Amino acid sequence: MGTQYPYPQAQDAAAGDGGGLSLPWEAVPLSRLGEKILIETALKHTGGRKGEAAELLGWGRNTLTRKLKTLLPEMAEE
């Protein structure tokens, strides 16, 4: 028995039919939530030092600042 995929599109993508992977809209908020959790965790770990948090995440400081403004505006100005 083959691998079971939660969405038919995932099985098509795994089969390599060239159709690409198209996830339902429910998957999008999880990605944003995941980034928010990563950012919050990195900032806690670095004591709020954005430069160090960005380095820990493998991002530039400008990228972290942009993501903060979008995902966590309440933390962007701190």
UniProtKB/TrEMBL annotation:
It comes from Halomonas nitroreducens. It comes from the Bacteria. Residues 35-69 form the DNA binding HTH domain. GO terms for molecular function: sequence-specific DNA binding. This is DNA binding HTH domain-containing protein.
